[in-house]
User: Fold RnfH family protein from Undibacterium danionis.
Amino acid sequence: MESKPVDQLPQNLASLLAIQLCYSRNGTAPVLLDLKVAQGSTIDQVFLSLNPTLRHELEQMLSEKATFAVFGKKKTRDYVLSSGDRLEICRALIAQPMDARRRRALREHKTGKM
Assistant:
C-alpha cells in the first residue's frame, strides 16, 4: 500500500491526531492504547468517545479519586490534546512513597540486602 502525504489525505483523516491512552488495572502492567482523535479534542471528549466497555471500566477507576495527566502533568477534563500526547489515568496512591521507602529500607536492612 502506497502512503500519501498528509496534504493529500481526505480532510477528515488529515485532521486526526495520534495520542496514547495509558492506564493500569489494579497494579498490573500499564495498558497503552494508540488512539486517533479529532484535532481540538479535549480529554473529556476522548473519554466519551471510547467504547462503552472500556469507558465503564475507566469510570470505575475515576470514581476512586483517579485523575488525568498528560506526560505526568495533572490536567483537567477540558484540556485540549495535541498530537503525540500520552493521556494517563492516574489512580490515587495506596501508600505514601516516603513511608513505603522507609519500610523497604528497614526490611532490606534486617535481611542484609543493603
Remarks:
- Residues 14-111 form a domain with the Ubiquitin-like (UB roll) fold (CATH 3.10.20.90).
- DSSP finds four helices and five strands in the chain.
- The first helix runs from residue 11 to 14.
- The CA atoms of residues 24 and 30 lie 4 Å apart.
